[in-house]
Amino acid sequence: MPEILFSSENIDFAEVSEELIPDYLVMVNDIEHVERFIGPRREPLTTADEIGWVRRKLAEKAAVFSMLERKSGDFIGSIELMDATDTEAELGIAITAAKQNMGYGTEGICRILEYGFRELGLKRIGLKAFAFNVRAIHVYEKCGFRTYERTEEDVYMEIMRETAVRKEQES
What pTM was computed for the model? Predict the structure, then answer.
């Protein structure tokens, strides 16, 4: 079992692990439910691809976490604060099809925002979503993100530390 680093009400956030590679592969190679939302079409990823990814992320000490359901230990998905600087990062999240539409996206995003602002000291977290991914955009807005640019293909969103703190205090 990968090491649990922090938790929220229903999610344990664990270090990425070679042990979870079969779960990662199911998720990232699911064209209908996941892959089409996270990047351009590509060949399916292999075990070797995922081993390389896990080892790179661990070596970089990247802020990427596997989300596991607290009560069952089941794999939910991955969440990352990418391209982090001292003050900002870009959010990335993918949830496996079996755990979608259960509130884990909202809970995971809210917790990673707290982690990024409190633990990493970030001032801004941004993201890019495909414009057709209306469901994800709704979740991001629910978590406090606001749109600052929109193209035909993409929606660019951000949340500032002050907004997140204010939203947390209102809860």
Answer: 0.90
Of the options 3.40.630.30, 3.90.190.20, 1.10.150.20, 3.40.190.10, the CATH number for the domain spanning 4-123 = 3.40.630.30
- The tens digit of pLDDT for each residue in 59-77 reads 999 999 999 999 999 999 9
Single-letter residue type at 131: A
